[in-house]
Specification:
The structure holds 2 protein chains of 2 kinds.
Chain A lengths: L1 E5 L3 H13 L3 E5 L2 H10 L6 E5 L7 H11 L5 E5 L4 H10 L3 E4 L4 H15 L5 E4 L2 E4 L4 E4 L2 E3 L3 H12 L5 E2 H8 L9 H14 L9 E3 L3 E3 L5
Parallel strand pairs in A: 1-2, 1-3, 3-4, 4-5
Antiparallel strand pairs in A: 6-7, 7-8, 8-9, 10-12, 11-12
Helix pairs in contact in A: 2-3, 6-8
Chain B lengths: L4 H49 L1 E4 L2 E4 L8 H4 L6 E7 L4 E4 L18 E7 L2 E11 L5 E10 L1 H48 L18 H48 L6 H33 L7 E4 H15 L6 E5 L5 E4 L1 H18 L5 E7 L4 E5 L34 H11 L3 E7 L3 E7 L7
Parallel strand pairs in B: 9-11
Antiparallel strand pairs in B: 1-2, 3-4, 3-7, 5-6, 6-7, 8-10, 11-12, 12-14, 13-14
The chains are: A alpha/beta, B alpha+beta.
Chain lengths: 225, 462
């Protein structure tokens, strides 16, 4: 899950990025309106959700929201702002935002609202399975044959991305973009490291791995026969 | 009792008209009264001439020749235009009287020297009397002639007139009162419209303006004046609203950062070093809030401060030195040249502690924006007299200069920038300068630097 955060206040951007990354999201931060709009429009397909501050130097969040909505009516957008009158909230929502969070806010609430929007976008899907592997997004847990498996956030995010795209090839560059962030090094070998971690935790001895390696291309979780 | 404006106008108008009408009515009545009796008196005089021609005397006794004319109807009856005659001698003894007088007797005035006219009654009929002394050739009074004519007609005319005037007077006033009240109501209807429109304006629709009357009269001026006033109130309200919004944004931001940072921090176990780093960040944010709050308080105190600061002679060199030391402590890492050109005897008219706050703010800005290797120059011009603080920082684009002293205005507009501050420092400087009659000028060239110049009130003491 990749999120674009447009926030001029670095102290706020920092904790949101850190907190969401720990929850397995990939976060890109733009520190002003122009940069935010460029990133949003330039990589719109890559993002699963936008977090926009309202008052930004250069170009405000409302304008970014409008421009993005022209290109993509579906992508979830959350306003994150110190503006807190009812008029502001209504105006923000009418501009095309899906949700509105007033500063100061509880991080858990932000997280919950992000999950709700992503779940809605997924059509209410919050469980993925492949063989005897089951992922419950709400409980944020993974079981193999009913047995709970502890995963790190990155492992979880990687598995989630592979499961979401079950039956399709996940290219290495896409994996990096969706699971790590856009500024991450172009060295994609980190993916192999994490795939190995996942295989150690999820694969059964003597059985084929849950994920297939497509050499030089990427990985794929195959549909059940 | 409280009268409406229209009723007050009507009342005053009616009172004034009442006095005027009363005067006119009195004059009319007076003229008619006078002319009516003048007419009767003339008749009496004519009659007296006639009678006098038939009066004779022997010694001091009167002799009257009976004239055929006296048999005329007017002297016989009392109904239609009767003329009464009576002549008496000096003792009041009746010498002659006309038939129609019958047994009536006109009062005798023994001391009458000159003719006189008076109103009287006879048998219930109102008459006009003329009384004349009868004199012989020597001028000696021999008797008295009294001629009476009916004044019934005049009395009726006068009565009618009086009646008419008395009835019409209040009637005219009542009609006038209501007419004036109506006219006044019509006259002040535009005022009433202005009142209605103005009373409908409050905080929520302060951008509304009064409709302007079609004619460019006093009401038009009143409406435009009120509209201008509304404009100023609206601008003030918008400024305050903006200020509150800015202040709340500036306070919420560090608060959000503190809350979020701590919240994320305790979501899981971390290395001790990580805790320390985050806590340091939080302390920085708390400092930022503290500084913002003290600036807001300072500004609030200055806004409500009445009157000017009392000015004193302030020695500049030590004050600048002190402010420089303080700014240096606030920016310990900064390395650049500071050159001060202030003679040790330089003095300015100012309030010492306020001037120090101004210098502190300006030097803080200069330190913030000064770049390594640059020079910060502080110089005194005794002629102006003015103090200049010139940095070699990035400069300020011209479009930002007019707003530089606005509250919460930041030329770089990016809170992410490495330069801290909420944009209140220069607003405080402006306010403090105003209270000490110090004029602040700023010149800036992008990429070359910014110069703030303080022009002090000329030293009236020396």
């Amino acid at each position: 899950m990749r999120i674009l955060l447009v926030e001029d206040e670095s102290s706020i951007a920092n904790f949101i990025k850190e907190g969401l990354e720990e929850e397995g999201f990939a976060i890109d931060v733009a520190y002003n309106g122009k940069e935010g709009l460029q990133m949003a429009l330039g990589y719109l397909e890559e993002y699963d959700l936008l977090l926009l501050d309202w008052m930004l130097p250069g170009l405000n969040g409302i304008e970014i929201c409008r421009q993005v909505r022209k290109e993509n009516p579906q992508i979830p957008i959350i306003f994150l702002t110190a503006k807190d009158t009812v008029d502001d909230v209504v105006f923000g929502l009418e501009t095309g935002a899906n949700d509105y969070i007033r500063k100061p806010f509880a991080f858990d609430e932000l997280l919950a609202r992000i999950r709700v929007l992503l779940r809605t976008r997924d059509g209410g899907h919050h469980n993925f399975t492949s063989g005897d592997i089951e992922m419950d997004l709400d409980a944020h847990q993974v079981t193999v044959a009913g047995e709970k498996v502890e995963l790190t956030q990155k492992e979880f995010a990687l598995l989630e991305y592979l499961l979401r795209n079950k039956g399709r090839v996940c290219r290495r560059t896409r994996i990096i973009e969706k699971v790590w962030d856009i500024h991450f090094s172009h060295d994609t070998s980190v993916i192999d490291v994490y795939i190995n971690f996942l295989r150690k935790k999820l694969d059964r001895p003597g059985q084929p791995s849950f994920v297939e390696t497509l050499r030089g291309v990427g990985y794929r979780i195959n549909e059940e026969q | 009792m409280k009268l409406r404006f229209r009723d007050r106008i009507a009342l005053f108008n009616t009172l004034a008209t009442a006095v005027a009408t009363l005067l006119v009515f009195l004059a009319v009545y007076g003229v008619v009264y006078y002319s009516a009796f003048q007419h009767l008196d003339q008749d009496i005089l004519n009659e007296q001439e006639e009678v006098a021609a038939n009066l004779h005397w022997k010694g001091d006794s009167l002799i009257i020749y009976r004239m055929p004319e006296w048999e005329e109807n007017e002297h016989q009856q009392v109904e239609v235009n009767p003329t009464f005659l009576q002549a008496v001698d000096i003792n009041g003894q009746l010498v002659f009287r006309s038939a129609n007088l019958q047994s009536e007797y006109f009062l005798f005035h023994p001391n009458l020297e000159q003719p006189r006219f008076l109103n009287s009654q006879i048998n219930g009929k109102r008459i006009r009397l003329g009384q004349f002394p009868i004199r012989n050739e020597a001028g000696l009074i021999l008797g008295q002639l009294t001629i009476g004519v009916s004044r019934e007609e005049s009395a009726i005319v006068l009565n009618n007139l009086r009646f008419t005037l008395l009835i019409t007077f209040p009637l005219v006033l009542v009609v006038l009162y209501f007419a004036t009240s109506l006219a006044a109501a019509k006259g002040i209807a535009p005022v009433q419209q202005l009142i209605n429109a103005a009373s409908g304006i409050d905080d929520s629709n302060i951008e509304t303006r009064l409709p302007l009357p079609a004619h460019r009269d006093e009401l038009y001026q009143l409406a435009t004046t009120i509209n201008e006033l509304l404009g100023r109130i609206e601008a003030g309200m918008r400024r305050e609203k903006q200020f509150t919004a800015d202040a709340s944004h500036e306070l919420r931001t560090p608060l959000s950062a503190i809350r979020g940072t701590l919240e994320v921090l305790i979501r899981r176990q971390r290395e001790p070093g990580h805790y320390e780093e985050k806590i340091r960040q939080v302390i920085l944010e708390v400092d930022r809030m503290g500084q913002l709050l003290s600036q807001l308080l300072q500004l609030a105190r200055l806004e409500t401060r009445p009157g000017q600061f009392p000015l004193e002679t302030v020695a500049l060199a030590p004050l600048v030195k002190e402010a420089l030391a303080q700014a240096g402590r606030a920016f310990p890492g900064k390395r650049f040249q500071v050159s001060v050109h202030i003679p040790s005897d330089a003095v300015a008219m100012a309030d010492r502690s306020s001037l120090f706050i101004i210098l502190d703010n300006l030097l803080n800005n200069a330190f913030k924006y000064s770049r390594p290797g640059g020079t910060l120059e502080i110089s005194w011009d005794a002629e102006a007299p003015s103090l200049a603080i010139a940095d070699q920082g990035p400069g300020i684009p011209p479009e930002h200069l007019p707003h530089l002293f606005d509250r919460f205005y930041r030329a770089d507009a990016s809170r992410n920038s490495s330069v801290p501050g909420a944009g209140l420092g220069l607003a405080i400087v402006k306010k403090l300068a105003l209270l000490q009659q110090i004029r602040v000028e700023v010149h800036s060239t992008v990429e070359a630097g910014t110069t703030f110049r303080l022009f002090f009130p000329s030293d009236t003491l020396s």
